[in-house]
Amino acid sequence: GVRTALRRCTARCAEGLEPEAGAPQGVPQAETGWRAMLSKFVPDRALLAKHGWSIFISYGLVSNLNSGLLGSLSWATFRRANPTLSPLGFGTSQWTSLSISPKFLAIYAGYYATVGTLLRPARFALAVAMAPFFTRVVKTLRERFGLPQATAVGAVVFVTNFVFSSIAAAAVVKLACLTAGVTVFAARVPA
To answer: Where are its TM segments located (predicted)?
Structure first.
């Protein structure tokens, strides 16, 4: 069958010989090993070319929401373990400077390395599914308001990847803290 012909063709090419007459030409070989594993995490170039900038807008939104989710889980976990501290400060000077607690960063890194890595293929799939929506939104902005392409894309990026993502992250932090039974910030400690 085809597999046998491909194996013979591959073996002959590996030996430096010309393929047999009638052997399939230009048939891509299945990737194996680490290349196959890597291909699950690297976007397909043809897919990126098809969707263009809209896939980057949608992936930016999905990625920001993912970071907000992981950050909120980290925030609630940190506050539960450290009821008198806030992730945005540590030690006695927590309200005098906006430093980020190394313990909070360690918790976030743990969630990102585990849950975040597992969600990466789903993030890309969701971004691809959302890309046509963003194409329609930009097209609508261009047609209704006569905006140039760059301005319409910039407006969509600002609203979705900055404004909406920030509001969603704050809401999810509040929800995670309510679920964990802790306040978002530690109470002020009198000096």
So the answer is: 55-78, 150-173
Task: Label residue 191 exposed, middle or buried (CB < 10 Å: 0-12, 13-18, 19+).
Answer: exposed
Q: Do 77 and 127 share a domain, yes or no?
A: yes
The per-residue pLDDT for range 17-37, each reduced to its tens digit, is 554 555 555 555 556 666 665
Whether 94 maps to a domain, the answer reads yes
Residues 35, 13: Cα–Cα separation, whole Å: 20
Look at residue 185 and tell me if it is in a domain.
no
Q: Which of 82, 76, 65, 60 is nearest to 108 (CA)?
A: 76
Q: List the domain range (segments joined by +) for residue 160.
A: 41-180
Q: Based on the fold, state whether residues 25 and 61 are members of the same structural domain.
A: no
Give the list of residues 6+ apart from residue 91 with CB closer than 8 angstroms, or none: none
Q: Which of 53, 28, 23, 15 is nearest to 134 (CA)?
A: 53
Within-domain flag for 35: no
Whether 187 maps to a domain, the answer reads no
